[in-house]
């Protein structure tokens, strides 16, 4: 009897909803469903308007209140998962998002780290993998869920994938607050029914709803009727949180192409103000070995100039073993660094970070990137 009397008030006490800060940064998800043509009509392609069904202010900036109302009226279920607050740091097609925006987002997340339980970032799909890699590395050790999503079609279109992606993302971001209380402590991309480590994911398809994949790392969760967590693959943060807000962006990717002589194609990189190269070799780390083919002499000169070269592979998965080949071994002997495979997106940003903070080792993971 006593037990049942006690049980009643306990059942009536509902736990407060997790606090989630949603950062809307632009991309297709918030664009106008009404299609428009470029004013000059140069390319004749159909483009989507950068707005969201009437919430665009005359100044061209989205208003958080209106945008949040749009979001909550289109996806009212979100209220059941979290107390959402919305900020719009910028509203850009993600082709215009780069290092200044990554740092801006990192600073916002850092400032709000203690005030929210989880973070949701709405982002254009085209460069989402770059932003995810940047945030994971800039905010290594952040320890709270930062889930990024976007969509292939605007939220307001009938067949849009936005609604499901948003619900899936908030489900994952707030996973700790519902059984089995999964502790997500990393930057992840939630898209097309899968949650992937942000710095392992890549946009692999331009039009299907499964636009992202994580070729080298299993998905963190698969969202179907149930959410199936891949617990053993979640990042376990051990180190201290140490945010960093600088990147040296003087980095390029150089794919090795048979028949291309880098001395003519790329020449003197120092004179071109390059400080870091992600060299995309063949297979396990192979490259044209004959001096007349140009690659080894060019590499020698480049490394001598103090340019950091990170050897990666044109293969999307599998290990690197440059020492197995004469040319790969020669490159290593010159001072080229070869680490375990990173996605090209993660590799260039890790290099940007290591150039800005020379104490960070390129080949040692700081956020599960390799
Ligand atoms: N161009 C868009 C963007 O990346 C593509 C999208 O979001 N689906 O901003």
From TrEMBL:
Signal peptide: 1-22
Keyword terms, alphabetized: Signal
Keyword Secreted part of the UniProt annotation: no
Catalytic residues (UniProt): 28 (o-isoaspartyl threonine intermediate), 125
PROSITE patterns recorded: ASN_GLN_ASE_2, ASN_GLN_ASE_3
Binding site for substrate: 94, 125-126
The keyword Signal appears for this protein: yes
Domain L-asparaginase N-terminal residue range list: 59-230
Gene Ontology biological process: aspartate family amino acid metabolic process
E.C. number(s) listed in UniProt: 3.5.1.1
Classification via InterPro entries: Asp/glu_Ase-like_sf (IPR036152), Asparaginase/glutaminase-like (IPR006034), Asparaginase/glutaminase_AS2 (IPR027475), Asparaginase_C (IPR040919), L-asparaginase_C (IPR027473), L-asparaginase_I (IPR041725), L-asparaginase_N (IPR027474), L-asparaginase_N_sf (IPR037152)
Positions of the Asparaginase/glutaminase C-terminal domain: 250-356
First-tier enzyme category under EC: hydrolase
GO molecular function: asparaginase activity
Annotated protein name in UniProt: asparaginase
Origin species: Coccomyxa subellipsoidea (strain C-169) (Green microalga)
């Amino acid at each position: 009897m006593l037990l049942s009397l006690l049980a009643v008030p306990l059942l009536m006490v509902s736990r407060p909803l997790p606090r989630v800060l949603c950062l809307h940064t632009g991309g297709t998800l918030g664009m106008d469903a009404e299609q428009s043509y470029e004013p000059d009509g140069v390319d004749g392609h159909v483009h989507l308007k950068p707005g969201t069904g009437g919430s665009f202010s005359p100044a061209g900036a989205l208003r958080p209140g209106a945008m949040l109302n749009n979001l909550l009226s289109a996806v009212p279920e979100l209220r059941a998962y979290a107390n959402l607050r919305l900020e719009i740091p910028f509203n850009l097609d993600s082709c215009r998002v780069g290092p200044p925006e990554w740092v801006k987002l990192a600073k916002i997340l850092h400032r709000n780290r203690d005030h929210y339980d989880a973070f949701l970032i709405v982002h254009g799909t085209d460069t989402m993998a770059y932003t995810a890699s940047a945030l994971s590395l800039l905010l290594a050790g952040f320890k709270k869920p930062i889930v990024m999503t976007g969509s292939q079609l605007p939220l307001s279109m009938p067949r849009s994938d936005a609604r499901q992606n948003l619900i899936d993302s908030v489900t994952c971001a707030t996973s700790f607050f519902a059984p089995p209380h999964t502790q997500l402590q990393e930057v992840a991309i939630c898209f097309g029914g899968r949650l992937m480590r942000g710095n392992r994911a890549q946009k692999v398809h331009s039009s299907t709803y499964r636009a992202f994949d994580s070729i080298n790392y299993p998905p963190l969760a698969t969202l179907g009727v149930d959410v199936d967590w891949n617990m053993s693959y979640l990042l376990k943060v051990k180190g201290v949180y140490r945010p960093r807000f600088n990147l040296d962006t003087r980095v390029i990717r150089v794919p090795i192409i048979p028949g291309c002589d880098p001395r003519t194609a790329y020449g003197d990189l120092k004179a071109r103000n390059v400080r870091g190269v992600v060299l995309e070799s063949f297979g396990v780390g192979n490259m044209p070995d004959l001096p007349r083919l140009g690659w080894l002499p060019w590499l020698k000169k480049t490394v001598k100039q103090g340019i950091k070269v990170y050897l990666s592979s044109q293969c999307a998965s599998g290990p690197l073993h440059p020492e197995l080949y004469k040319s790969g071994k020669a490159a290593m002997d010159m001072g080229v660094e070869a680490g375990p495979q990173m996605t090209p997106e993660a590799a260039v940003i890790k290099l940007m970070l290591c150039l800005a903070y020379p104490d960070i080792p390129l080949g040692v993971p700081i956020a599960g990137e390799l």
